[in-house]
Write the structure tokens for this entry.
Amino acid sequence: MIPKILVLPGSNRSGSFNASLAAAASVELAQQGADVTRISLIDYPLPIVDEDLKTRSGIPDNAMKLGRLIAAHDGVFLSCPEYNSSIPPLLKNMIDWVSLIASDGDRPFKPWKGRYVALGSASNGKFSGIRGLYHVRSVLMNVGTQVISEQCSVGGAADAFDEDGRLKDERTRAMLSTACKSLLTHCSMMNSR
Ligand SMILES: Cc1cc2nc3c(=O)[nH]c(=O)nc-3n(C[C@H](O)[C@H](O)[C@H](O)COP(=O)(O)O)c2cc1C
């Protein structure tokens, strides 16, 4: 079965480096045989997580839509900016809202549970956003995903992509390819069980 992968940048900034990395990952995953859906969180605006709001109005529609999308895929590739060495609020808020979903209609529903996730980061700084990924990894594991070890961090991101959106540096390209391959291998193993 062809693995279905959702690709999602954790930034809505115009000209986002992580959106560029998500685009490069989408191409790589498709070349490796995945069925890829790439989305932007700009299309799924969410209020700040608020348990009183949840009690009053339930899970927001966009969180439910994201939950269903996540659950409809075998794996997720997340490219995450690093904010003050950690997870950016846009991404944390989305992860938190989706983690609060417990049911869809009558059936129990936990969208994150059992999903395989591969991580990427991009930053113009020399640390390439890698410090933030420790936090992203920890949060995602605590909501029930399986985060694979291989990841791809892109430093000097303002100059890292060519005009076709390809990563210029061979070593970084190999890192992305390895992370995508591992994600697809894990998803295929899960599908064959
Ligand atoms: C509040 C804030 C904190 C940041 N902290 C870091 C940081 O710790 N490390 C880093 O490499 N870049 C940091 N940056 C810079 C981001 O890496 C940069 O804005 C990057 O372009 C964000 O990713 P994007 O291009 O995908 O939007 C920070 C930016 C903001 C707004």
